[in-house]
Amino acid sequence: MTVPDLATTQRAFLFADPAAHSLSPRMHGAAFTHAGLPGTYEARRVPTGALASAVAGLRAPGVLGANLSLPHKEAVVPLLDSLSDAARAVGAVNTVIHRDGQLHGENTDAPGLLAALRDAGLPDLGPGEPVVILGAGGAARAAAFVALRDMRARAWIVNRTLDRARALAAEFRPHGEVQAAAPDDVPWADTPLVINASSAGLNDPEQAPLDASFLARLPAGALVYDMVYKPAETRLMREARALGLNAENGLGMLAHQARLAFTAWTGADVPVRVFLDALGEEAGSGSVAGRTP
Ligand SMILES: NC(=O)c1ccc[n+]([C@@H]2O[C@H](COP(=O)([O-])OP(=O)(O)OC[C@H]3O[C@@H](n4cnc5c(N)ncnc54)[C@H](OP(=O)(O)O)[C@@H]3O)[C@@H](O)[C@H]2O)c1
């Protein structure tokens, strides 16, 4: 496999719909500058019907690859030449790497989440300890992968639509102990980690994924990780902190998934702080709501 010629300008993209307010150009622009590389990163609105031709365009010389966001992370899979184990297991690709006309699919959301959980002070988990995942969409798939394959935890999936939680649990059962559950059936008192992978709170800061009464049942020192990153403190986080629990927002995951994609494209190891700093102004300005990663 040829290493990309990083002395000449190399291009990377985001394909999403919508894409206009993406934070990724800001993060990757800062990373190219930090690494001293003459690259560009451009967010393009790609409607579903245009995905195949946009992806085919990534095979051109001078293209490093692309990020995929809603609604393309699953639809891109059959358009690629190879997949990493993580992308195959999660069933979604957020990073395409181009080398010599070949396109390789990677999922950096899952390791990005794991890195962010560690930064947030993830408690040491024993095998089979409960991890609760709220939501059953694309982000919950990455969380289930991390809980089962990286942590060897027992995953409990709680979702507004229980049937979707059941379907996700059935799909991930080959990877470990996982089950769908109604909130009342979860062993909250033994749960050191709750991951909100639902979009509750994304467009309405006062919206929470479920009734907050479960928070009072969590053990001291539990971490509540909310993948939502605007507002910087969601209602879920606020209520968790009021009870003395550890709570973090999704900015760390956003920065880590971008860092891992950048390294996959360029080989450059840019510190996560560069990506977080690029987000910092936006995150603090209150204008991140509803944005595409
Ligand atoms: N920080 C990061 O880097 C990062 C990365 C990826 C995603 N995310 C965030 O993760 C969230 C989920 O993304 P996704 O791609 O998984 O979305 P998705 O595939 O559309 O799934 C959304 C999930 O949220 C649930 N939900 C929506 N509104 C709800 C509400 N009011 N109350 C309870 N549950 C609700 C849905 O339940 P139903 O099944 O009942 O509809 C579904 O399970 C978004 O906020 C996204 O921004 C963050």
From TrEMBL:
Family from the record: Belongs to the shikimate dehydrogenase family.
Domain spans labelled SDH C-terminal: 250-279
GO terms under biological process: amino acid biosynthetic process; aromatic amino acid family biosynthetic process; chorismate biosynthetic process; shikimate metabolic process
Function comment: Involved in the biosynthesis of the chorismate, which leads to the biosynthesis of aromatic amino acids. Catalyzes the reversible NADPH linked reduction of 3-dehydroshikimate (DHSA) to yield shikimate (SA).
Annotated binding of NADP(+), by residue: D85, G135, A136, G137, G138, A139, N159, R160, T161, L162, D163, R164, M227, G250
A Pfam family that the UniProt record links to this protein: Shikimate_dh_N
Binding site for shikimate: S22, L23, S24, S69, N94, D109, Y229, Q257
EC nos: 1.1.1.25
Keywords: Amino-acid biosynthesis, Aromatic amino acid biosynthesis, NADP, Oxidoreductase
Broad EC category: oxidoreductase
Organism: Deinococcus soli
Gene Ontology MF terms in the entry: NADP binding; shikimate 3-dehydrogenase (NADP+) activity
Protein name as annotated: Shikimate dehydrogenase (NADP(+))
InterPro entries linked to this entry: Aminoacid_DH-like_N_sf, NAD(P)-bd_dom_sf, SDH_C, Shikimate_DH, Shikimate_DH-bd_N, Shikimate_DH_fam
The Shikimate dehydrogenase substrate binding N-terminal domain, residue ranges: 14-96
GO cellular component, one term: cytosol
Catalyzed reactions: shikimate + NADP(+) = 3-dehydroshikimate + NADPH + H(+)
Active site positions: K73
Subunit and partners: Homodimer.
Pathway the protein takes part in: Metabolic intermediate biosynthesis; chorismate biosynthesis; chorismate from D-erythrose 4-phosphate and phosphoenolpyruvate: step 4/7
